[in-house]
Amino acid sequence: MASKYDRIADDLRKRIHAGEWKAGDRLPAHTALEAEFGVSLNTVRNALELLAAEGLLLVEQGKGTWVRERPPTSRRSNDRYQWEKDRVLLPEAQRLNDGASEKDTGLRFEQLDFHATYTETTADEDLAKVFEVPVGTRMLRRDYRTTPKGHGVPLSYSRGSFLVYDVVAANPALLDQANEPWPGGTQHQLSTIGIELARIVDQVSCRPPTNEEAQALQLPPGTSVFALRKVSIDTGGRVVEVSDSVWPGDRVDLVYTTELERWGK
Fold it and tell me: Which of 84, 91, 104, 136 could form a disulfide linkage to 74, CB 3.0–4.6 angstroms apart?
């Protein structure tokens, strides 16, 4: 059976979603909520803390409670990789129009700020095992940050996109961060050195954020994150990219659709 504070939280949640209070609106004082629901102060506090943990409310002790203005929600589906691959064959003028971030958020290019940092590094034991290369192999690390303008909160927290340096060095343009954002993204970049992807493996786990991640993503207390490792494999079965990123659990929807074959075929 739901507790009293669960029932109160459910009522307030529905009213927020119905538009009774909009982003930036202040909720009634604790005493007013006590009187409305006929419960104790602790019960009201527990209900508000639950909604704050969900990212719906911002609670400031001694000041009040507001409906939190949430950054744009990203909807990441498993058809994005085929969408990216199809774009590789398009003229540059069409590839310039939008990219995967625009597809995920529904925002336009001019509504987003892009930032990329390239550094040289070497493969540790983890990366060496995935790439099947010796430990210490020279790698190119690429860190990306994409932020909706006016919000200041990145869509995800990058922990690095890794490529074998000597492979991508076949096209010097791929070593220069000034060429970002690259029209067509990573799949088009790889196509310039003759690499076609055959499959991509996403490994997603859910966990509490580190302090650094929570600060970078401005997460409400108690919000979990999705940690994604994306492994891109070419038509010859070789791993060509490993990307690690963290997504905020309060504003990312993961949508995976699997087509099933009919019986008797």
Answer: 104
